[in-house]
Specification:
heterodimer; A: alpha/beta; Rossmann fold; 2 domains; seven-stranded mixed β-sheet; 12 helices; 35% helix; B: alpha/beta; five-stranded parallel β-sheet; two-stranded antiparallel ribbon; binds thiamine diphosphate; binds magnesium ion
Chain lengths: 340, 318
């Protein structure tokens, strides 16, 4: 890592940014540890923890047996004791094995115990499709967890946010599910060398515009940005919001933008039915900002199907920048009697 | 279901499995296939030895490392190849890919992308046989890694208390991805866990087809006669990386080389020569034939059309 770069900012990948946050946290605090399948010498299935076991040893970068329920539970217990565990679920699909631990234990302990407990656990996991890994290795199940009070759910889309939000998640006294995306790992962006925090629960305006609001998170936030560029070529200036945290949701930021543009398209990778986009739309339409809307909001989401293996089939059911543009066109169509 | 009564057939089937996965490895290396696959190379004697103990009507469940189970069961090579190529004529019409090849009607209840994911399914098939008074059995293949999952405990106990006709075949290939059995377990052999459930357990040399076959036949016999499940541990080795991408950082070249000297195909071929079933060196031409069969399957599959993109919306519900 080159020293002497102005302000210590370098361009690194999302993968490196996540790793850097973990490494800095572990250097700072002996109570932080990383646990998961193949996180040691293998470096994690996606190489995120590569090199870490060499620095911190097998006692703090811990290869587990295949026991997702068991080691997530262990993470909860260690967190209850005041440690700062980072638990990696190799593919977010396997989080189902740890569902009881997350939903009935991690999320509930503090409340059930009358505020007398904290579970500062971070669960990191890569979600999403686009890799041809088919139905059991491609899901976006993040919406499930926003339905569970007591859990926080974050989904950073840039290397900068990945590092800052992971460090913030580690400071947070609550269980945080930290969604990464396989197709983001190689994406590069500017990241300061020093430690910094990006607060959880705050959306970010990633592009300003007046004509229509596009809200995204994670990988597909980039689809929204790409769509905005395409729309700009046609003279339409979209405002793009990166939600960053799904729970607690920063709906105020969405309302502010919608009041300006009057049109809302939510871009999400999970399946449309009961996806997190439904929550975004609900919060808009049940607020005063409803009256600022001049078109019904739209969602560009995954189809209500599992993820198929064949590339073309997979592309067919996933959101794309083109689908976002198409949805925007429908909302922008001002011909009389046309109301998409 | 493949007919495996003839000893030469057993050898040929192992060769087919190896040729199939070596072809798949090659296709990944050249970038023809997308997604991922896990290779069965080195473990052929397990699938074939177990399958040889089964009868028409019996069923199996496979794993993420599932091509070997499917070929041993007798699935059509061209339709398997078509599935890997994502074609409409594939077993799953291009929706499943490597990790989900299945032919439920024939009794191949599916490979599985979730470690331990098929253990309950195998018990359910066994339950159906038992409830209906049929004397079929279900074979559940899984890796050493699955033994570490919670469902292992739950399903072995269910099968034990209800005396289900299921054979749990643990393919101990020494690793669950990068985690060695030595690091993943405090106690071996894994088959000793059977006694905790009150069921039969045995560990066999999984590189020796006849050994696997003998133990599997005994387990099937017990299951058919109402004596319940068996935990059969086949000690074996995966020659190639965990999946298409793997730098093998967790093991040594020497170790891989050492295991390769116990090659199940060469051992069985030598045995057949000794028995006079095979002429000297005849195994080489058999091997060539197996490779040709695989080449042909992939070449034909490659002529098949892609599925219609809209088919992605079909078959979510029955
Ligand atoms: C529940 C679950 N956890 C993790 C994985 C990722 N994964 C796939 S295969 C594998 C190793 C499995 O080892 P084993 O059961 O011994 O089978 P082998 O690969 O050796 O054939 C892992 C960790 C998964 N597919 N499912
Ligand atoms: Mg294994």
């Amino acid at each position: 890592m080159p020293n002497g770069v102005p302000n210590g900012v370098r361009e690194i990948t999302y993968r490196e940014a996540v790793r850097e946050a973990m490494v800095e946290a572990m250097r700072e605090d002996a109570e932080v540890f990383l646990m998961g399948e193949d996180v040691g010498v293998y470096g994690g299935a996606f190489g995120v923890s590569r090199g870490m076991v060499e620095e911190f040893g097998e006692g703090r970068v811990v290869d587990t047996p295949l026991a997702e329920a068991g080691f997530v539970g262990l993470g909860i217990g260690a967190a209850l004791m005041g440690m700062r565990p980072i638990v990696e679920i190799q593919f977010s699909d396997f989080i189902t094995h740890a569902m009881d631990q997350l939903v009935n234990q991690a999320a509930k302990l503090r409340y059930m115990f009358g505020g007398k407990a904290r579970v500062p656990l971070v669960v990191r996991t890569p979600g999403g499709a686009g890799t041809g890994a088919a139905a059991q290795h491609s899901q976006s199940l993040e919406a499930w967890f926003i339905h569970v009070p007591g859990l926080k759910v974050v989904m950073p889309s840039t290397p900068y946010d990945a590092k800052g939000m992971l460090l913030a998640a580690l400071d947070d006294p609550n269980p945080v599910i930290f969604y990464e995306h396989k197709l983001l790992y190689n994406r590069k962006g500017d990241v300061p060398e020093k430690a910094y925090r990006v607060p959880l629960g705050e959306a970010r305006v990633s592009r300003e515009g007046e004509d229509i609001t596009l809200v995204g998170a994670g990988l597909v936030h980039r689809f929204a940005l790409e769509a905005a560029e395409a729309l700009s070529d046609e003279g339409v200036e979209a405002e793009v919001l990166d939600l960053r945290t799904l729970s607690p949701m920063d709906h105020e930021a969405v309302l502010r933008s919608v009041e300006k543009t009057g049109k809302l398209v939510v871009v999400e990778e999970d399946v449309k039915t009961a996806g997190w986009g439904a929550e975004v739309v609900s919060r808009v339409v049940e607020s005063e900002s409803f009256y600022a809307l001049d078109r019904a909001p739209a969602r560009v989401a995954g189809a209500d199907t599992p993820i198929p293996y064949n590339k073309n089939l997979e592309a067919f059911i996933r959101p794309t920048p083109e689908k976002v543009v198409e949805a925007a066109h429908k909302l922008l169509d001002s011909r009389a009697g046309v109301y998409a | 279901m493949r007919d495996l009564k003839d000893r030469k057939e057993l050898l040929e089937t192992m060769m087919l499995i190896r040729a199939f996965d070596e072809k798949v490895d090659e296709l990944y290396a050249e970038g023809t296939l997308h997604g991922t696959a896990h290779f069965y190379v080195g473990q052929e004697a397990v699938a074939v030895g177990v399958m040889a103990a089964l009868e028409e009507g019996d069923v199996i469940t496979g794993t993420h490392r599932g091509h070997g189970h499917a070929v041993a069961f007798g699935l059509d090579l061209e339709r398997m190849a078509a599935e890997l190529l994502g074609r409409a004529s594939g077993y799953c019409h291009g929706k499943g890919g490597s990790m989900h090849i299945a032919d439920v009607e024939a009794g191949m209840l599916g490979a599985n992308g979730i470690v331990g994911g098929s253990m309950g399914i195998a018990c359910g098939a066994a339950w159906a046989f038992k409830q209906r008074g049929e004397d079929h059995v279900a074979v559940c293949f899984f890796g050493d890694g699955a033994v570490q999952e919670g469902i292992f405990n739950e399903t072995l106990n269910l099968a034990a208390v209800w005396k289900l006709p299921v054979i749990f075949v643990c393919e101990n290939n020494q690793y669950a991805m990068s985690l060695s059995v030595k690091r993943g377990f405090a106690h071996e052999p894994l088959s000793e866990r059977a006694s905790g459930y009150g069921i039969a357990g045995e560990t066999v040399d999984g590189m020796e087809l006849d050994e696997v076959h003998r133990a599997a036949s005994a387990a099937v016999e017990r299951a058919r006669s109402g004596e319940g499940p068996t935990l059969l541990e086949a000690v074996t080795y995966r020659y190639l990386g965990h999946s298409k991408s793997d730098a093998n950082l967790y093991r040594t070249r020497e170790e891989i080389k050492q295991w390769r000297t116990h090659d199940p195909i060469q051992r069985f071929a030598a045995k057949l020569e000794e028995e006079g079933v095979l002429e000297k060196e005849a195994w080489q031409s058999l091997n060539e034939q197996a490779k040709e069969q695989i080449e042909e399957a992939f070449a034909k599959a490659d002529q098949e059309p892609e599925p219609d993109p809209e088919s992605a919306l079909e078959d979510v519900y029955a």
